[in-house]
Amino acid sequence: MQHLRTIFTGRGLVIAVPFLFLLLFFLAPFFIVGKISVSEMETVTFKDLITVKDGVLTLALKFSHYVFITEDALYVKTYWASLKYAAATTVLCLAIGYPFAYFMARARPTAQPALLMLVMLPFWTSFLLRVYAWRGLLSEGGWVAGLINGLGLDQLLLAAGLISAPGQLMHTPFSLVLGMTYTYLPFMILPLYGNLAKMDLRLLEAAADLGATPWVAFWKVTVPLSKAGIIAGSMLVFIPCVGEFVIPELLGGPETLMIGRVLWDEFFSNNDWPMASAVAVVMVLLIILPLALFNKYQAESQEARP
Amino acid sequence: MKSQRLAQWFSKSWLTAGYLFLYLPIVALVIYSFNDSPLPNVWRGFTLKWYAQLAHDEELLRGLWLSLKIAFMTACGSVVLGTFAAFALVKYKRFFGRTLFSGMVNAPLVMPEVVVGLSLLLMLVSVQRALGFPERGMATIWLGHLLLGMAYAAVIVQSRLQDLNPQLEEAAMDLGARPHQVFWLVTLPMIAQSLVSAWLLTFTISLDDVVLSAFLSGPGSTTLPLVIFSRARLGLNPSVNAVATLTIVVVSIGVIAASYLIARAERQRQRDMAAANRA
Question: Is the pTM of this model over 0.95?
Answer without folding.
Answer: no
